[in-house]
Amino acid sequence: MTTISAAQRGAQRERRRMRINATPYLFLLVPLAVYFIWIVFPMLFSVYLSLTNWDGISPIPAPNALSLDNYNRLFTDRDFGVSFGNNVKWMIVFLTVPTTVGLGLAMIFNTDIRGSRWFKISFYAPLILSFVVIGTIWAWIYEPRAGLLNSVIVGVSQLLASIFPFVTPLERGPGWLADRNLALWSIMGAAVWRQCGYVMILYLAGLKNLDPSLIEAARVDGANGWQLFRRVIFPLLGPITTVVIVVSVIDSLRAFDLVQVMTRGGPGGASNVLANFMYIEAFNNYNFGYGASIAVVLLGLSLFIVVPYLYRTVKTELEY
Amino acid sequence: MKKLLNRRFLVLAAVLIAVVVVAGVSAQDSLIRYASNASDEGPRGQDEAMVARWNEQHPDQPIEHSVTDHEAFKQAIRTYLVADPAPDVLTWFAGNRMAFFVDRGLAADLSPLYEREGWYDSYAPGFVALATAGEGQYFVPTSYYWWAMYFRRSIMEANGLTAPATWDELLATCDTLSAAGITPITIGTRAPWTAAAWFDFLNMRINGPEFHINLMLLKESYTDERVVAVFDHWRQLYEHNCFLPDSAAYEWQEALDFMNRGEAAMYLMGDFIRDSVPDEIESDLDFEMFPVINPDMPIGIDAPTDGFFMSAASGNPEGAYDFLAFIGSAEEQQFAADNLGRLPTRMDVDTSGFSEAQQKGIGLVQSADYVAQFYDRDTTPEMAEAGLNAFAEFISDPMNADVTALLESLEADRVRIAAEQAAE
Q: Is the Cβ pair A267, B382 closer than 8 Å?
């Protein structure tokens, strides 16, 4: 042991330092590899596939057979236009209805009204159900002849008719999911029902973190309820609102489960959305190339909205 | 000493693992993977009984039996076939659905099996032809069934009606029934293939089976005025309130409930309707050929053939052969015919004990001039999807639907798909 020279000792120290420096990267190697294999590579591969006419079974076409045919077809495809429009409608609804209702609910249940815990749980409960379950339940509610909704509508109309002679009772209610003009909105009804509770929980968490001294200060300055909300609470909830908006946008772009379960995009494509359109093209029609091009458009849309958000988040994080 | 023990332990463990792996592999060798789409109650019982009979007779060649939902199977099968190990034996449909996999080299040539089992002689020639692609046979057609206009005898009689045999009679029947507060024809189009039956029969009755099958083969145009005529007739049915409203809200079985409850009288359906009808109603259920529209045209009928095939990547081809030989045997076809009422494809199955309905169904098919499979089996999967969507769009608002635009869109799909096929 005593015969180790100074040079050897130096080399040993050097090696140790290198080992220390390499360690975090060694640990990162596995997650990074997994990330590249399962996230980055498939993403890039989808872009590649979108330039081919691969059917999902035959060998994958070689790079010399690439073309933009799929994208040309996309922009003339009526189904694509309808699906895209439906995603936009979905996004507009998601950015307005559940956000407002969720915030309202949060404001109400943040006070000490009686049974607020019970109400909170009730509004949150839909979130523990899977989309498939929600879709199935709502499909029953919308069932045209014996469903809950139409039973109530027809029942009320008959009740009104028995009281007021000038009212003609309804024979039957709307077709909801079977009606081209109502199908998409009916599905969104189920989606909004779930989303409201989600937004409520996000805002409740935000409200709990507000500095009470600011609110007290506003009260002392004589702010009324609306002013307090408009000038103090809502601005303080700004970061939460950003999260809510991003979540709403992402959720509306990836809408798939409810559509697949409730109408499968029908009747005749009227309630189709991009994700479902992609699924049908790739897995039902064996058009993986075309399906991939839809996926790329979806990816582009998501990036367009999510990247500014991420940029902003990272920037604000650095400021702390 | 301790080290030695450790080493000995390691060697022992290695040997054990090797034994388990080898045993596992050899056990898998005799395993036959069977992927089935028999998810409805009746077919499922038949399917399970068939596997049970096999297992009883062949304890050394166990079956790994997996059943997938009938609709989901159509999509999942694509991944099954390229999986490793692929299922050895699978249920499937004759016609274009089978051709799709044969063209891509995913189905095994079964001509040695046909030879070995003497099936060239025992199967009806039409069905051998249906299984043939090029030189080989790739499919074991085991049963077929017919599509017809089903109706509740009691409801028709109560309204002084008989099954409509002509177009005018059909319209008059609709008028009478809807005036009596009964839905003349029930239909569930949530999965829109039920609507395709109407297209098939209207097209065959108006334009004849030859035009129909050429349209299925993408050789005729969807903007042809003959196709427009089909939609004109279809719309007339809606003008006469023939159909259940909001049909897109119901699966075909849910729509059948209206008939079971006596609120609807007729249903254009395949004979598998019988699987979902309660026993007490079944005796009241009758069927007739779809009404004649143009008497000059030959009579076509949809009679889809179901069966089995073997994946080209089968890890156990010998086991698959044995199991297919068993499935295609006269005994098994007899069981299937007796249990489910499907019709056998072999000529040596004893039909004397068949029910009245089966005898009538055989008569129906034999009296037809042309036997088609079904819209989504006769045309390519992609064209079928586009067509079904267009039908669904039409019947969701038949009075205002822009048929011209629908057909132009279908025609664009047909031209593109035909061009892609030609390029392959």
A: no
B-contacting residues in A 1-60 (Cβ below 8 Å): 53, 55-58
Q: What is the pLDDT of residues B206-264, one digit of tens each?
A: 999 999 999 999 999 999 999 999 999 999 999 999 999 999 999 999 999 999 999 99
> To which H or E segment does residue B141 belong?
strand B140-144
**B416 chain-A contacts, CB cut-off 8 A:** 73
**Count of residues in chain A:** 320
Please state which CATH number belongs to domain A50-319.
1.10.3720.10
CA pair distance B420, B136, nearest whole angstrom: 25
Q: Does the CB of B78 have a partner CB in chain A at under 8 Å?
A: yes
Residue A26: how many other CB atoms lie within 10 Å: 9
Q: Which long-range contacts (CB under 8 A, 24 or more apart) does A146-154 make?
A: A147/A176, A149/A173, A149/A176, A150/A174, A150/A176
Q: Residue A234 corresponds to which tokens in the numbers above?
A: 């809502």
**What does pTM read for this prediction?**
0.80
Each domain of chain A, given as residue ranges in start order, spans 50-319
The reply to whether residue A267 touches residue B381, judged by beta carbons under 8 angstroms, is no
Select from A61, A213, A285 the least CA-distant residue to B417: A285
A253 touches chain B (CB under 8 A): no
The answer to whether B245 contacts A264, with C-beta atoms less than 8 Å apart, is no
The domains located in chain B, with CATH, are 33-145+304-360 (3.40.190.10), 147-302+380-423 (3.40.190.10)
